[in-house]
Design brief:
Elements: E1 2-10, E2 13-19, H1 29-36, E3 46-52, E4 60-66, E5 71-72, H2 76-88, E6 99-101, E7 104-110, E8 116-119, E9 140-142, E10 145-151, E11 160-167, E12 171-176, H3 185-193, E13 203-211, E14 214-221, E15 225-227, H4 231-243, E16 250-254, E17 259-264, E18 271-275, E19 278-286
Parallel strand pairs: 2-3, 4-6, 12-13, 14-16
Antiparallel strand pairs: 1-2, 1-19, 3-4, 4-5, 6-7, 7-8, 8-18, 9-10, 10-11, 11-12, 13-14, 14-15, 16-17, 17-18
The structure holds the ligand N[C@@H](CCC[C@H](N)C(=O)O)C(=O)O.
Length: 291
Protein backbone atom coordinates (compact mmCIF):
# COMPACT_ATOMS: atom_id res chain seq x y z
CA UNK A 1 0.00 0.00 0.00
CA UNK A 2 1.33 3.46 -0.95
CA UNK A 3 0.42 6.30 1.45
CA UNK A 4 1.00 10.03 1.73
CA UNK A 5 2.43 11.39 4.96
CA UNK A 6 3.61 14.65 6.53
CA UNK A 7 6.68 14.77 8.75
CA UNK A 8 6.37 17.27 11.62
CA UNK A 9 8.19 18.21 14.81
CA UNK A 10 7.36 20.06 18.00
CA UNK A 11 10.45 21.05 20.02
CA UNK A 12 12.28 18.21 18.28
CA UNK A 13 9.73 15.52 19.24
CA UNK A 14 9.02 14.22 15.74
CA UNK A 15 5.95 12.75 14.09
CA UNK A 16 4.65 11.06 10.97
CA UNK A 17 1.16 12.51 10.43
CA UNK A 18 -1.40 10.50 8.43
CA UNK A 19 -4.62 12.00 7.03
CA UNK A 20 -7.37 9.42 7.59
CA UNK A 21 -10.25 11.87 7.25
CA UNK A 22 -11.39 10.38 3.93
CA UNK A 23 -10.21 6.80 4.24
CA UNK A 24 -9.13 4.63 7.16
CA UNK A 25 -5.73 3.03 6.62
CA UNK A 26 -6.18 0.31 9.26
CA UNK A 27 -2.44 -0.14 9.79
CA UNK A 28 -1.18 -2.92 12.03
CA UNK A 29 1.10 -2.28 15.05
CA UNK A 30 3.97 -3.67 12.93
CA UNK A 31 3.22 -1.14 10.17
CA UNK A 32 3.16 1.78 12.65
CA UNK A 33 6.48 0.48 14.04
CA UNK A 34 7.90 0.27 10.51
CA UNK A 35 6.81 3.85 9.62
CA UNK A 36 8.48 5.16 12.81
CA UNK A 37 11.67 3.20 12.17
CA UNK A 38 14.55 5.60 11.37
CA UNK A 39 16.36 3.08 9.16
CA UNK A 40 13.63 1.28 7.20
CA UNK A 41 10.66 3.70 7.38
CA UNK A 42 10.22 7.48 7.64
CA UNK A 43 11.41 7.79 11.24
CA UNK A 44 9.48 9.34 14.14
CA UNK A 45 8.90 9.19 17.88
CA UNK A 46 5.15 8.84 17.28
CA UNK A 47 2.73 8.32 14.37
CA UNK A 48 -0.35 10.57 14.51
CA UNK A 49 -3.55 9.70 12.63
CA UNK A 50 -6.12 12.41 11.89
CA UNK A 51 -9.66 11.00 11.73
CA UNK A 52 -13.12 12.59 11.61
CA UNK A 53 -14.92 12.60 14.94
CA UNK A 54 -18.35 10.99 15.25
CA UNK A 55 -19.02 13.03 18.43
CA UNK A 56 -21.07 16.25 18.25
CA UNK A 57 -19.09 19.40 19.01
CA UNK A 58 -15.75 17.65 18.45
CA UNK A 59 -13.87 18.43 15.22
CA UNK A 60 -11.46 15.51 14.89
CA UNK A 61 -10.27 12.29 16.43
CA UNK A 62 -6.53 12.12 17.16
CA UNK A 63 -5.00 8.64 17.32
CA UNK A 64 -1.44 8.26 18.62
CA UNK A 65 0.96 5.34 18.17
CA UNK A 66 4.37 5.21 19.84
CA UNK A 67 7.45 4.20 17.83
CA UNK A 68 7.05 0.68 19.28
CA UNK A 69 3.65 0.39 17.54
CA UNK A 70 1.51 0.64 20.69
CA UNK A 71 -1.49 2.99 20.79
CA UNK A 72 -1.37 5.57 23.59
CA UNK A 73 -3.74 7.95 25.28
CA UNK A 74 -2.13 11.36 24.86
CA UNK A 75 0.75 13.30 23.24
CA UNK A 76 1.28 17.00 23.98
CA UNK A 77 3.80 17.97 21.28
CA UNK A 78 1.75 15.92 18.84
CA UNK A 79 -1.39 17.87 19.77
CA UNK A 80 0.29 21.10 18.69
CA UNK A 81 1.46 19.53 15.41
CA UNK A 82 -2.04 18.09 14.91
CA UNK A 83 -3.55 21.61 15.17
CA UNK A 84 -0.98 23.04 12.74
CA UNK A 85 -1.58 20.12 10.33
CA UNK A 86 -5.40 20.36 10.15
CA UNK A 87 -5.19 24.12 9.59
CA UNK A 88 -2.36 24.12 7.03
CA UNK A 89 -3.83 21.22 5.04
CA UNK A 90 -7.22 22.94 4.82
CA UNK A 91 -9.11 20.37 6.92
CA UNK A 92 -10.38 23.27 9.06
CA UNK A 93 -10.38 27.06 8.86
CA UNK A 94 -10.59 27.43 12.64
CA UNK A 95 -7.75 28.55 14.93
CA UNK A 96 -9.12 26.53 17.85
CA UNK A 97 -10.20 22.92 17.36
CA UNK A 98 -11.72 20.36 19.69
CA UNK A 99 -9.96 17.04 19.37
CA UNK A 100 -10.92 13.65 20.84
CA UNK A 101 -8.04 11.52 22.14
CA UNK A 102 -8.13 8.19 23.97
CA UNK A 103 -8.01 10.14 27.25
CA UNK A 104 -10.60 12.81 26.52
CA UNK A 105 -11.11 16.02 24.53
CA UNK A 106 -8.31 18.60 24.27
CA UNK A 107 -8.33 22.06 22.69
CA UNK A 108 -5.31 23.24 20.71
CA UNK A 109 -5.32 26.88 19.59
CA UNK A 110 -3.02 28.48 16.96
CA UNK A 111 -1.44 31.72 18.21
CA UNK A 112 -0.62 34.77 16.08
CA UNK A 113 3.13 34.22 16.71
CA UNK A 114 2.99 30.75 15.09
CA UNK A 115 3.16 28.81 18.34
CA UNK A 116 0.29 26.62 19.51
CA UNK A 117 -1.33 26.58 22.96
CA UNK A 118 -3.13 23.43 24.08
CA UNK A 119 -5.65 23.10 26.88
CA UNK A 120 -4.47 19.65 28.02
CA UNK A 121 -7.21 19.25 30.67
CA UNK A 122 -6.56 18.79 34.39
CA UNK A 123 -3.83 16.53 35.79
CA UNK A 124 -4.96 13.27 37.41
CA UNK A 125 -3.55 12.35 40.84
CA UNK A 126 -5.76 9.34 41.63
CA UNK A 127 -3.18 6.53 41.71
CA UNK A 128 -5.29 3.66 40.27
CA UNK A 129 -6.20 5.98 37.36
CA UNK A 130 -2.54 6.73 36.53
CA UNK A 131 -2.26 3.65 36.85
CA UNK A 132 0.22 3.18 39.76
CA UNK A 133 0.14 0.22 42.14
CA UNK A 134 1.00 1.62 45.58
CA UNK A 135 0.01 -1.53 47.52
CA UNK A 136 2.27 -1.92 50.58
CA UNK A 137 4.14 1.34 49.89
CA UNK A 138 3.96 4.48 52.04
CA UNK A 139 4.24 7.90 50.43
CA UNK A 140 7.08 10.19 51.55
CA UNK A 141 5.91 13.74 52.31
CA UNK A 142 7.80 16.38 50.34
CA UNK A 143 6.96 20.09 50.29
CA UNK A 144 3.21 20.33 49.88
CA UNK A 145 2.86 16.89 48.31
CA UNK A 146 4.40 13.41 48.28
CA UNK A 147 6.82 11.15 46.46
CA UNK A 148 7.01 7.39 46.10
CA UNK A 149 10.25 5.47 46.52
CA UNK A 150 10.85 3.09 43.60
CA UNK A 151 13.47 0.38 44.01
CA UNK A 152 15.32 -0.18 40.73
CA UNK A 153 17.29 -3.34 40.01
CA UNK A 154 20.47 -2.38 38.15
CA UNK A 155 23.67 -4.34 37.55
CA UNK A 156 25.42 -1.73 39.71
CA UNK A 157 23.10 -2.07 42.74
CA UNK A 158 19.53 -1.19 43.69
CA UNK A 159 19.09 2.58 43.79
CA UNK A 160 15.93 3.97 45.40
CA UNK A 161 14.43 6.69 43.24
CA UNK A 162 11.88 9.14 44.70
CA UNK A 163 9.25 9.99 42.08
CA UNK A 164 6.11 12.09 41.88
CA UNK A 165 3.39 10.10 40.13
CA UNK A 166 0.56 11.56 38.06
CA UNK A 167 -1.28 11.32 34.75
CA UNK A 168 -1.72 13.92 32.02
CA UNK A 169 -3.99 11.45 30.25
CA UNK A 170 -0.88 9.24 30.05
CA UNK A 171 1.23 8.07 33.00
CA UNK A 172 4.29 9.96 34.29
CA UNK A 173 6.90 9.42 37.03
CA UNK A 174 8.93 12.57 37.68
CA UNK A 175 12.18 12.64 39.64
CA UNK A 176 14.27 15.68 40.55
CA UNK A 177 17.91 15.67 39.49
CA UNK A 178 20.79 18.06 40.15
CA UNK A 179 21.75 18.36 36.49
CA UNK A 180 19.88 16.90 33.50
CA UNK A 181 23.12 16.70 31.51
CA UNK A 182 24.54 14.07 33.88
CA UNK A 183 21.20 12.46 34.92
CA UNK A 184 20.97 8.66 34.41
CA UNK A 185 18.24 8.99 31.76
CA UNK A 186 19.46 6.16 29.53
CA UNK A 187 20.13 3.69 32.36
CA UNK A 188 17.26 4.42 34.77
CA UNK A 189 14.71 5.46 32.09
CA UNK A 190 14.03 1.94 30.77
CA UNK A 191 13.91 0.50 34.32
CA UNK A 192 11.36 3.08 35.46
CA UNK A 193 9.36 2.69 32.22
CA UNK A 194 8.90 -1.04 32.85
CA UNK A 195 8.75 -0.97 36.69
CA UNK A 196 6.17 -3.43 38.00
CA UNK A 197 4.37 -0.66 39.95
CA UNK A 198 3.19 0.77 36.60
CA UNK A 199 0.91 -1.83 34.96
CA UNK A 200 0.71 0.18 31.69
CA UNK A 201 4.39 1.23 31.85
CA UNK A 202 5.26 4.89 32.38
CA UNK A 203 7.06 7.92 30.96
CA UNK A 204 10.08 8.78 33.15
CA UNK A 205 10.88 12.49 33.63
CA UNK A 206 14.19 13.89 34.92
CA UNK A 207 13.59 17.42 36.20
CA UNK A 208 16.22 20.02 37.08
CA UNK A 209 14.93 23.07 38.95
CA UNK A 210 16.68 26.22 37.74
CA UNK A 211 14.39 28.79 39.40
CA UNK A 212 10.72 29.10 40.37
CA UNK A 213 9.74 29.73 36.77
CA UNK A 214 12.45 27.92 34.84
CA UNK A 215 13.33 24.23 34.69
CA UNK A 216 15.30 21.87 32.47
CA UNK A 217 13.81 18.50 31.55
CA UNK A 218 14.70 15.24 29.86
CA UNK A 219 12.15 12.45 29.38
CA UNK A 220 12.55 8.76 28.69
CA UNK A 221 9.26 8.09 26.89
CA UNK A 222 7.28 4.90 27.17
CA UNK A 223 7.45 3.12 23.83
CA UNK A 224 9.89 5.58 22.23
CA UNK A 225 13.00 5.95 24.42
CA UNK A 226 14.52 9.36 25.13
CA UNK A 227 13.01 12.06 22.91
CA UNK A 228 14.19 15.65 22.42
CA UNK A 229 11.03 16.85 24.19
CA UNK A 230 7.85 15.42 25.69
CA UNK A 231 4.86 17.76 25.97
CA UNK A 232 2.85 15.76 28.49
CA UNK A 233 6.15 15.14 30.32
CA UNK A 234 6.68 18.90 30.58
CA UNK A 235 3.11 19.35 31.89
CA UNK A 236 3.58 16.53 34.43
CA UNK A 237 6.97 17.85 35.62
CA UNK A 238 5.66 21.40 36.13
CA UNK A 239 2.48 20.20 37.87
CA UNK A 240 4.65 18.06 40.18
CA UNK A 241 6.99 21.00 40.88
CA UNK A 242 4.03 23.29 41.65
CA UNK A 243 2.41 20.73 43.99
CA UNK A 244 5.73 20.18 45.73
CA UNK A 245 5.82 23.95 46.36
CA UNK A 246 8.94 24.60 44.28
CA UNK A 247 7.52 26.24 41.15
CA UNK A 248 5.25 29.16 40.30
CA UNK A 249 2.15 28.75 38.15
CA UNK A 250 3.88 29.66 34.85
CA UNK A 251 7.11 27.87 34.01
CA UNK A 252 9.46 27.77 31.03
CA UNK A 253 10.64 24.22 30.38
CA UNK A 254 13.93 23.92 28.48
CA UNK A 255 14.13 20.59 26.72
CA UNK A 256 16.93 19.37 24.46
CA UNK A 257 14.81 20.24 21.41
CA UNK A 258 13.23 23.56 22.39
CA UNK A 259 11.29 25.63 24.88
CA UNK A 260 7.80 24.84 26.16
CA UNK A 261 5.79 27.10 28.47
CA UNK A 262 3.46 25.41 30.94
CA UNK A 263 0.77 27.08 33.04
CA UNK A 264 -1.34 25.54 35.80
CA UNK A 265 -3.47 27.37 38.37
CA UNK A 266 -3.72 24.29 40.63
CA UNK A 267 -6.58 22.01 41.73
CA UNK A 268 -8.93 20.98 38.95
CA UNK A 269 -7.73 23.72 36.59
CA UNK A 270 -6.55 22.60 33.15
CA UNK A 271 -2.88 22.64 32.23
CA UNK A 272 -1.94 24.90 29.31
CA UNK A 273 1.07 24.09 27.16
CA UNK A 274 2.52 26.51 24.58
CA UNK A 275 5.25 25.68 22.09
CA UNK A 276 6.28 25.29 18.45
CA UNK A 277 4.74 23.05 15.78
CA UNK A 278 6.59 22.79 12.48
CA UNK A 279 6.09 20.91 9.18
CA UNK A 280 9.39 19.39 8.03
CA UNK A 281 8.47 17.71 4.72
CA UNK A 282 5.78 15.73 2.92
CA UNK A 283 6.15 12.50 1.03
CA UNK A 284 4.78 9.17 -0.16
CA UNK A 285 5.92 5.75 0.92
CA UNK A 286 5.11 2.14 0.08
CA UNK A 287 4.30 0.28 3.32
CA UNK A 288 4.95 -3.45 3.32
CA UNK A 289 1.90 -5.62 4.12
CA UNK A 290 3.91 -7.48 6.74
CA UNK A 291 7.04 -5.55 7.71
N1 LIG B 1 5.75 12.73 22.97
C1 LIG B 1 4.62 12.83 23.75
C2 LIG B 1 4.08 11.65 24.47
C3 LIG B 1 3.82 10.44 23.58
C4 LIG B 1 3.21 9.26 24.31
C5 LIG B 1 4.10 8.70 25.38
N2 LIG B 1 5.33 8.16 24.87
C6 LIG B 1 3.34 7.62 26.15
O1 LIG B 1 3.55 6.42 25.90
O2 LIG B 1 2.51 7.97 26.99
C7 LIG B 1 4.25 14.17 24.27
O3 LIG B 1 4.69 15.17 23.68
O4 LIG B 1 3.47 14.27 25.22
Amino acid sequence: MRIRFTKMQGAGNDFVVLDETRQRLDLSPAQYRWLADRHFGVGADQVLSVRPSPAAGVDFEYVIHNADGGEVEQCGNGARCFARYVRDSGLTSRDTVRVKTLSGVIEPCLNADGRVTVDMGPPVFDLPSVPFDAAGLSPHADGGWQKWHLALATSAGSPIVPVAVLSMGNPHAVQEVEDVDTAPVLTQGPLIETHSRFPKRVNAGFLQMVGRSHVRLRVWERGAGETLACGTGACAAVVAGIRLGRLDSRVDVQTRGGLLTIEWAGGDAPVFMTGPAVTVFEGEIEIPEQP
